[in-house]
Design goal:
By secondary structure, the protein is α/β, with parallel strands linked by helices. 47% of the residues lie in helices and 18% in strands. The chain binds 5'-O-[(R)-(carboxyoxy)(hydroxy)phosphoryl]adenosine and zinc ion (ZN). One of its GO terms (biological process) is tRNA threonylcarbamoyladenosine modification.
Protein backbone atom coordinates (compact mmCIF):
# COMPACT_ATOMS: atom_id res chain seq x y z
CA UNK A 1 0.00 0.00 0.00
CA UNK A 2 1.14 3.50 -0.77
CA UNK A 3 2.08 5.43 2.36
CA UNK A 4 3.09 8.55 0.49
CA UNK A 5 6.82 8.39 1.23
CA UNK A 6 8.52 11.00 -0.91
CA UNK A 7 12.22 11.83 -1.09
CA UNK A 8 12.60 15.54 -1.85
CA UNK A 9 15.74 17.11 -3.31
CA UNK A 10 16.50 20.85 -3.41
CA UNK A 11 19.55 22.51 -5.00
CA UNK A 12 18.27 25.78 -6.49
CA UNK A 13 20.60 28.19 -4.72
CA UNK A 14 23.17 27.73 -1.96
CA UNK A 15 21.82 24.88 0.13
CA UNK A 16 21.95 21.22 -0.82
CA UNK A 17 19.01 19.57 0.87
CA UNK A 18 17.26 16.19 0.96
CA UNK A 19 14.25 15.16 3.02
CA UNK A 20 11.83 12.28 3.42
CA UNK A 21 8.24 13.37 4.00
CA UNK A 22 5.27 11.08 4.61
CA UNK A 23 1.88 12.06 3.26
CA UNK A 24 2.91 15.65 2.60
CA UNK A 25 2.77 16.49 6.31
CA UNK A 26 5.26 14.52 8.34
CA UNK A 27 8.95 15.24 7.78
CA UNK A 28 10.88 12.11 8.80
CA UNK A 29 14.15 13.86 7.96
CA UNK A 30 15.28 17.18 6.50
CA UNK A 31 19.03 17.46 5.93
CA UNK A 32 20.37 20.86 4.86
CA UNK A 33 24.00 21.37 3.85
CA UNK A 34 24.58 25.11 3.76
CA UNK A 35 27.24 26.67 1.55
CA UNK A 36 27.20 30.00 3.38
CA UNK A 37 30.83 29.65 4.50
CA UNK A 38 31.92 29.09 0.87
CA UNK A 39 30.14 32.19 -0.45
CA UNK A 40 30.48 34.56 2.51
CA UNK A 41 33.97 35.83 1.56
CA UNK A 42 32.48 36.96 -1.79
CA UNK A 43 29.53 38.76 -0.17
CA UNK A 44 27.01 36.75 -2.18
CA UNK A 45 26.39 33.45 -3.93
CA UNK A 46 28.95 32.59 -6.63
CA UNK A 47 27.02 30.38 -9.10
CA UNK A 48 30.01 28.35 -10.30
CA UNK A 49 31.04 27.51 -6.74
CA UNK A 50 27.45 26.67 -5.84
CA UNK A 51 27.22 24.02 -8.59
CA UNK A 52 30.42 22.39 -7.47
CA UNK A 53 29.40 22.36 -3.82
CA UNK A 54 26.06 20.76 -4.73
CA UNK A 55 27.89 18.06 -6.67
CA UNK A 56 30.12 17.40 -3.69
CA UNK A 57 27.25 17.29 -1.17
CA UNK A 58 24.35 15.66 -2.98
CA UNK A 59 25.17 11.96 -2.40
CA UNK A 60 26.02 12.22 1.32
CA UNK A 61 23.07 14.54 1.96
CA UNK A 62 20.61 12.10 0.37
CA UNK A 63 22.13 9.18 2.25
CA UNK A 64 21.86 11.07 5.51
CA UNK A 65 18.22 11.94 4.80
CA UNK A 66 17.37 8.29 4.06
CA UNK A 67 19.22 7.02 7.14
CA UNK A 68 17.67 9.73 9.32
CA UNK A 69 14.19 8.75 8.17
CA UNK A 70 14.97 5.06 8.65
CA UNK A 71 13.57 4.08 5.28
CA UNK A 72 15.05 2.13 2.37
CA UNK A 73 15.09 3.42 -1.21
CA UNK A 74 12.68 0.63 -2.12
CA UNK A 75 10.11 2.00 0.33
CA UNK A 76 9.85 5.33 -1.50
CA UNK A 77 6.74 6.12 -3.53
CA UNK A 78 8.39 8.90 -5.53
CA UNK A 79 11.42 11.14 -5.91
CA UNK A 80 10.68 14.89 -6.05
CA UNK A 81 13.06 17.61 -7.15
CA UNK A 82 13.15 21.38 -7.57
CA UNK A 83 12.88 22.08 -11.29
CA UNK A 84 13.26 25.88 -10.93
CA UNK A 85 13.46 28.81 -10.57
CA UNK A 86 17.05 29.18 -9.42
CA UNK A 87 20.65 29.11 -10.59
CA UNK A 88 20.84 26.95 -13.73
CA UNK A 89 24.02 25.09 -12.81
CA UNK A 90 22.84 24.53 -9.26
CA UNK A 91 19.44 23.21 -10.36
CA UNK A 92 21.06 20.84 -12.86
CA UNK A 93 22.84 18.96 -10.08
CA UNK A 94 19.61 18.16 -8.24
CA UNK A 95 17.62 17.43 -11.40
CA UNK A 96 20.28 15.10 -12.85
CA UNK A 97 20.65 13.26 -9.58
CA UNK A 98 16.90 12.90 -8.98
CA UNK A 99 16.30 11.74 -12.54
CA UNK A 100 18.99 9.08 -12.35
CA UNK A 101 17.79 7.90 -8.96
CA UNK A 102 14.12 7.66 -10.01
CA UNK A 103 15.13 5.80 -13.15
CA UNK A 104 17.36 3.36 -11.27
CA UNK A 105 14.67 2.69 -8.64
CA UNK A 106 11.83 2.50 -11.15
CA UNK A 107 9.90 5.13 -9.12
CA UNK A 108 7.97 8.13 -10.40
CA UNK A 109 9.77 11.47 -10.63
CA UNK A 110 7.93 14.64 -9.57
CA UNK A 111 9.06 18.13 -10.62
CA UNK A 112 8.33 20.91 -8.13
CA UNK A 113 8.42 24.67 -8.55
CA UNK A 114 10.60 26.13 -5.80
CA UNK A 115 8.00 28.81 -5.02
CA UNK A 116 5.27 26.21 -4.67
CA UNK A 117 7.63 24.46 -2.26
CA UNK A 118 7.89 27.58 -0.10
CA UNK A 119 4.07 27.82 0.06
CA UNK A 120 3.78 24.17 1.10
CA UNK A 121 6.35 24.66 3.86
CA UNK A 122 3.55 26.41 5.76
CA UNK A 123 1.13 23.51 5.30
CA UNK A 124 3.73 20.85 6.00
CA UNK A 125 3.66 20.98 9.76
CA UNK A 126 -0.04 21.60 10.08
CA UNK A 127 -2.05 18.99 11.93
CA UNK A 128 -4.98 18.05 9.74
CA UNK A 129 -8.49 18.64 11.01
CA UNK A 130 -10.65 15.52 10.71
CA UNK A 131 -12.77 17.13 7.97
CA UNK A 132 -9.67 17.89 5.90
CA UNK A 133 -8.59 14.27 5.81
CA UNK A 134 -11.65 13.60 3.67
CA UNK A 135 -11.79 14.75 0.07
CA UNK A 136 -11.05 18.46 -0.30
CA UNK A 137 -13.99 20.67 -1.28
CA UNK A 138 -14.60 21.45 -4.92
CA UNK A 139 -14.48 25.22 -4.51
CA UNK A 140 -12.84 26.18 -1.27
CA UNK A 141 -12.08 29.79 -0.44
CA UNK A 142 -8.57 30.59 -1.74
CA UNK A 143 -5.58 31.30 0.48
CA UNK A 144 -3.30 34.27 -0.13
CA UNK A 145 0.36 33.23 -0.18
CA UNK A 146 3.15 35.77 0.23
CA UNK A 147 6.48 34.27 -0.84
CA UNK A 148 9.19 36.59 0.36
CA UNK A 149 12.78 35.44 -0.09
CA UNK A 150 16.16 36.45 -1.46
CA UNK A 151 15.05 36.02 -5.05
CA UNK A 152 11.29 36.57 -4.85
CA UNK A 153 8.54 38.75 -3.51
CA UNK A 154 5.31 37.33 -4.89
CA UNK A 155 1.65 37.13 -3.95
CA UNK A 156 -0.43 34.17 -5.08
CA UNK A 157 -4.01 33.09 -4.71
CA UNK A 158 -3.61 29.40 -3.89
CA UNK A 159 -6.55 27.07 -4.26
CA UNK A 160 -6.92 23.34 -3.69
CA UNK A 161 -9.51 21.46 -5.70
CA UNK A 162 -9.69 17.68 -5.28
CA UNK A 163 -6.02 17.63 -4.16
CA UNK A 164 -4.80 19.59 -7.17
CA UNK A 165 -3.37 23.02 -6.30
CA UNK A 166 -3.62 25.97 -8.63
CA UNK A 167 -1.92 29.35 -8.19
CA UNK A 168 -2.76 32.75 -9.57
CA UNK A 169 -0.03 35.37 -9.39
CA UNK A 170 -1.62 38.57 -8.10
CA UNK A 171 1.44 40.52 -6.96
CA UNK A 172 5.17 40.86 -7.33
CA UNK A 173 8.12 43.16 -6.90
CA UNK A 174 8.96 45.42 -9.82
CA UNK A 175 12.67 45.44 -8.93
CA UNK A 176 14.50 43.87 -5.96
CA UNK A 177 13.14 41.09 -3.78
CA UNK A 178 12.66 41.95 -0.10
CA UNK A 179 15.41 39.54 0.99
CA UNK A 180 17.73 41.08 -1.58
CA UNK A 181 17.10 44.49 0.02
CA UNK A 182 17.93 43.05 3.45
CA UNK A 183 21.13 41.55 2.06
CA UNK A 184 22.18 44.71 0.22
CA UNK A 185 21.48 47.03 3.15
CA UNK A 186 23.38 44.73 5.51
CA UNK A 187 26.29 44.74 3.09
CA UNK A 188 26.11 48.54 2.81
CA UNK A 189 26.45 48.73 6.58
CA UNK A 190 29.42 46.38 6.69
CA UNK A 191 27.59 43.29 7.99
CA UNK A 192 28.05 39.70 6.83
CA UNK A 193 26.25 37.60 4.24
CA UNK A 194 23.40 36.73 4.21
CA UNK A 195 22.36 40.00 5.76
CA UNK A 196 18.72 39.31 6.64
CA UNK A 197 19.45 37.40 9.84
CA UNK A 198 21.89 40.15 10.97
CA UNK A 199 19.38 42.93 10.40
CA UNK A 200 16.74 40.86 12.22
CA UNK A 201 19.04 40.34 15.22
CA UNK A 202 20.39 43.92 15.43
CA UNK A 203 17.22 45.93 14.68
CA UNK A 204 15.77 45.57 18.23
CA UNK A 205 18.73 47.65 19.50
CA UNK A 206 17.90 50.57 17.22
CA UNK A 207 15.16 53.20 17.18
CA UNK A 208 12.86 52.34 14.26
CA UNK A 209 11.45 55.89 14.23
CA UNK A 210 14.87 57.47 13.73
CA UNK A 211 14.85 57.55 9.93
CA UNK A 212 11.54 58.01 8.11
CA UNK A 213 11.56 55.99 4.88
CA UNK A 214 8.78 56.17 2.36
CA UNK A 215 8.13 53.88 -0.53
CA UNK A 216 8.37 54.82 -4.17
CA UNK A 217 4.67 54.70 -4.98
CA UNK A 218 5.28 56.54 -8.22
CA UNK A 219 7.47 53.80 -9.60
CA UNK A 220 4.96 51.10 -8.73
CA UNK A 221 2.19 53.12 -10.40
CA UNK A 222 4.19 53.61 -13.59
CA UNK A 223 4.79 49.88 -13.67
CA UNK A 224 1.13 49.18 -13.23
CA UNK A 225 0.34 51.08 -16.41
CA UNK A 226 3.07 49.34 -18.38
CA UNK A 227 2.47 45.85 -17.03
CA UNK A 228 1.66 43.15 -19.57
CA UNK A 229 -1.42 40.99 -19.23
CA UNK A 230 0.28 38.54 -16.86
CA UNK A 231 -1.01 40.42 -13.85
CA UNK A 232 -4.39 42.05 -13.84
CA UNK A 233 -3.42 45.76 -13.91
CA UNK A 234 -6.18 47.14 -11.71
CA UNK A 235 -5.98 44.44 -9.13
CA UNK A 236 -2.32 43.50 -8.97
CA UNK A 237 -0.13 44.39 -6.02
CA UNK A 238 3.29 45.84 -6.74
CA UNK A 239 6.23 45.95 -4.37
CA UNK A 240 9.43 47.93 -4.92
CA UNK A 241 12.49 47.57 -2.71
CA UNK A 242 15.34 49.08 -4.70
CA UNK A 243 14.41 52.66 -3.75
CA UNK A 244 14.81 52.10 -0.03
CA UNK A 245 18.21 50.51 -0.60
CA UNK A 246 19.30 53.66 -2.41
CA UNK A 247 17.81 55.81 0.36
CA UNK A 248 19.94 53.92 2.90
CA UNK A 249 23.02 54.48 0.76
CA UNK A 250 22.21 58.18 0.49
CA UNK A 251 21.75 58.39 4.27
CA UNK A 252 25.13 56.71 4.85
CA UNK A 253 26.83 59.16 2.49
CA UNK A 254 25.21 62.30 3.87
CA UNK A 255 25.81 61.35 7.51
CA UNK A 256 29.52 60.59 7.19
CA UNK A 257 29.12 56.98 8.21
CA UNK A 258 31.58 55.51 5.72
CA UNK A 259 34.68 55.36 7.93
CA UNK A 260 32.77 53.66 10.75
CA UNK A 261 31.30 51.17 8.29
CA UNK A 262 34.70 50.40 6.73
CA UNK A 263 36.08 49.60 10.18
CA UNK A 264 33.13 47.30 10.89
CA UNK A 265 33.49 45.58 7.52
CA UNK A 266 37.13 44.91 8.27
CA UNK A 267 36.33 43.50 11.71
CA UNK A 268 33.57 41.30 10.24
CA UNK A 269 36.01 39.97 7.64
CA UNK A 270 38.10 38.48 10.43
CA UNK A 271 35.11 36.44 11.62
CA UNK A 272 33.85 34.67 8.44
CA UNK A 273 31.80 32.06 10.33
CA UNK A 274 30.02 34.57 12.55
CA UNK A 275 26.35 33.81 13.12
CA UNK A 276 23.72 36.05 14.73
CA UNK A 277 22.86 33.36 17.24
CA UNK A 278 26.42 32.88 18.49
CA UNK A 279 28.10 36.23 17.86
CA UNK A 280 25.37 38.82 18.33
CA UNK A 281 27.08 40.56 21.26
CA UNK A 282 30.41 40.83 19.44
CA UNK A 283 28.81 42.26 16.31
CA UNK A 284 26.54 44.58 18.24
CA UNK A 285 29.65 46.01 19.87
CA UNK A 286 30.91 46.86 16.37
CA UNK A 287 27.76 48.90 15.67
CA UNK A 288 27.29 52.57 16.54
CA UNK A 289 23.80 53.73 17.53
CA UNK A 290 23.18 55.52 14.24
CA UNK A 291 23.79 52.30 12.29
CA UNK A 292 21.42 50.40 14.59
CA UNK A 293 18.76 53.10 14.17
CA UNK A 294 19.17 52.94 10.40
CA UNK A 295 18.79 49.15 10.36
CA UNK A 296 15.73 49.29 12.61
CA UNK A 297 14.10 52.01 10.48
CA UNK A 298 14.81 50.08 7.29
CA UNK A 299 13.31 46.86 8.66
CA UNK A 300 10.26 48.69 10.03
CA UNK A 301 9.60 50.25 6.62
CA UNK A 302 9.99 47.04 4.61
CA UNK A 303 7.91 44.98 7.01
CA UNK A 304 5.24 47.68 7.16
CA UNK A 305 4.96 47.75 3.38
CA UNK A 306 4.70 43.94 3.14
CA UNK A 307 2.02 43.80 5.84
CA UNK A 308 -0.03 46.68 4.46
CA UNK A 309 -0.13 45.50 0.86
CA UNK A 310 -0.67 41.84 1.72
CA UNK A 311 -3.67 42.58 3.94
CA UNK A 312 -5.09 44.93 1.34
CA UNK A 313 -4.89 42.11 -1.21
CA UNK A 314 -6.38 39.64 1.29
CA UNK A 315 -9.42 41.88 1.62
CA UNK A 316 -9.72 42.36 -2.14
CA UNK A 317 -9.80 38.62 -2.83
CA UNK A 318 -11.74 37.61 0.27
CA UNK A 319 -9.30 34.86 1.21
CA UNK A 320 -9.68 32.33 4.01
CA UNK A 321 -6.18 32.87 5.36
CA UNK A 322 -2.73 34.29 4.64
CA UNK A 323 0.35 32.08 4.30
CA UNK A 324 3.74 33.82 4.62
CA UNK A 325 6.81 31.86 3.52
CA UNK A 326 10.37 32.16 2.17
CA UNK A 327 13.57 33.19 3.93
CA UNK A 328 12.32 36.62 5.02
CA UNK A 329 9.39 34.90 6.77
CA UNK A 330 11.97 33.99 9.43
CA UNK A 331 12.13 37.68 10.38
CA UNK A 332 10.81 38.32 13.90
CA UNK A 333 9.40 41.78 13.32
CA UNK A 334 7.64 40.53 10.19
CA UNK A 335 6.04 37.68 12.15
CA UNK A 336 5.00 40.01 14.96
CA UNK A 337 3.48 42.61 12.67
CA UNK A 338 1.62 40.04 10.55
CA UNK A 339 0.34 38.32 13.68
CA UNK A 340 -0.84 41.59 15.24
CA UNK A 341 -2.60 42.67 12.03
CA UNK A 342 -4.19 39.22 11.69
CA UNK A 343 -5.62 39.53 15.19
CA UNK A 344 -6.89 43.05 14.47
CA UNK A 345 -8.58 41.97 11.22
CA UNK A 346 -9.76 38.55 12.35
CA UNK A 347 -8.00 36.86 9.45
CA UNK A 348 -5.66 33.96 10.23
CA UNK A 349 -2.01 34.13 9.17
CA UNK A 350 0.41 31.18 9.19
CA UNK A 351 4.18 30.84 8.89
CA UNK A 352 6.53 27.87 8.58
CA UNK A 353 8.82 27.10 11.50
CA UNK A 354 12.19 28.86 11.22
CA UNK A 355 13.99 25.88 9.72
CA UNK A 356 11.35 25.47 7.03
CA UNK A 357 11.20 29.18 6.12
CA UNK A 358 14.56 29.18 4.33
CA UNK A 359 15.41 26.76 1.54
CA UNK A 360 14.96 23.09 2.37
CA UNK A 361 13.90 19.84 0.69
CA UNK A 362 11.03 18.96 3.06
CA UNK A 363 8.95 21.70 1.46
CA UNK A 364 9.69 20.22 -1.98
CA UNK A 365 8.56 16.75 -0.89
CA UNK A 366 5.46 18.28 0.72
CA UNK A 367 4.51 20.13 -2.46
CA UNK A 368 5.00 16.88 -4.41
CA UNK A 369 2.45 14.94 -2.36
CA UNK A 370 -0.67 16.29 -4.12
CA UNK A 371 1.06 15.58 -7.43
CA UNK A 372 1.64 11.98 -6.38
CA UNK A 373 -2.08 11.64 -5.61
CA UNK A 374 -3.04 13.10 -8.98
CA UNK A 375 -0.22 11.26 -10.84
CA UNK A 376 1.33 14.46 -12.13
CA UNK A 377 4.74 13.01 -12.98
CA UNK A 378 7.71 14.48 -14.81
CA UNK A 379 8.70 13.03 -18.16
CA UNK A 380 12.07 11.68 -19.23
CA UNK A 381 13.05 15.00 -20.78
CA UNK A 382 12.77 17.00 -17.54
CA UNK A 383 15.48 19.64 -17.29
CA UNK A 384 16.37 22.55 -15.04
CA UNK A 385 14.21 25.63 -15.64
CA UNK A 386 16.08 28.59 -14.20
CA UNK A 387 13.33 31.09 -15.03
CA UNK A 388 10.35 28.88 -14.16
CA UNK A 389 7.21 30.86 -13.23
CA UNK A 390 4.46 29.99 -10.83
O1 LIG B 1 14.13 31.31 0.81
P1 LIG B 1 15.59 31.56 0.91
O2 LIG B 1 16.39 30.66 1.81
O3 LIG B 1 16.27 31.52 -0.49
C1 LIG B 1 15.68 32.04 -1.64
O4 LIG B 1 14.86 31.32 -2.26
O5 LIG B 1 15.99 33.22 -1.94
O6 LIG B 1 15.73 33.09 1.37
C2 LIG B 1 16.98 33.67 1.63
C3 LIG B 1 16.76 35.14 1.92
C4 LIG B 1 18.04 35.96 2.06
O7 LIG B 1 17.87 37.16 1.36
C5 LIG B 1 18.14 36.20 3.55
O8 LIG B 1 18.83 37.37 3.89
C6 LIG B 1 16.69 36.29 3.94
O9 LIG B 1 16.05 35.30 3.17
N1 LIG B 1 16.49 36.02 5.37
C7 LIG B 1 16.02 36.94 6.25
C8 LIG B 1 16.02 36.31 7.51
N2 LIG B 1 16.50 35.03 7.36
C9 LIG B 1 16.78 34.88 6.04
N3 LIG B 1 15.60 38.20 6.07
C10 LIG B 1 15.16 38.88 7.17
N4 LIG B 1 15.15 38.33 8.40
C11 LIG B 1 15.55 37.07 8.62
N5 LIG B 1 15.53 36.55 9.85
ZN1 LIG C 1 13.83 29.88 -1.61
Amino acid sequence: ARTGLILGIESSCDETSAAVVRGGREALSNVIASQIAVHAPFGGVVPELASREHLRAIVPVVEQAMAGAGVAFDDLDAVAVTEGPGLPGALLVGVSYAKALALALGKPLIAVNHLEGHIHAVLLERVLQPAETQATPEHGQPKLALVVSGGHTHLYLAQETHHAWTYRNVGRTVDDAAGEAFDKVAKLLGLGYPGGPWVDALAPFGDARAVPFSFAQVKAKAHRRADPVALHPEEATYFSFSGIKTAVLRYVQTHDMEARIAARRQAMATMPDASPRRDLEAVRALCDQESLDLLASFQRAVVGDLVRKTFRAAERYDVAEILVSGGVAANRELRERFTAEAAAQGLPVAFPSLKLATDNAAMIAAAAWPKLITSEFAGETLTAAAGLKL
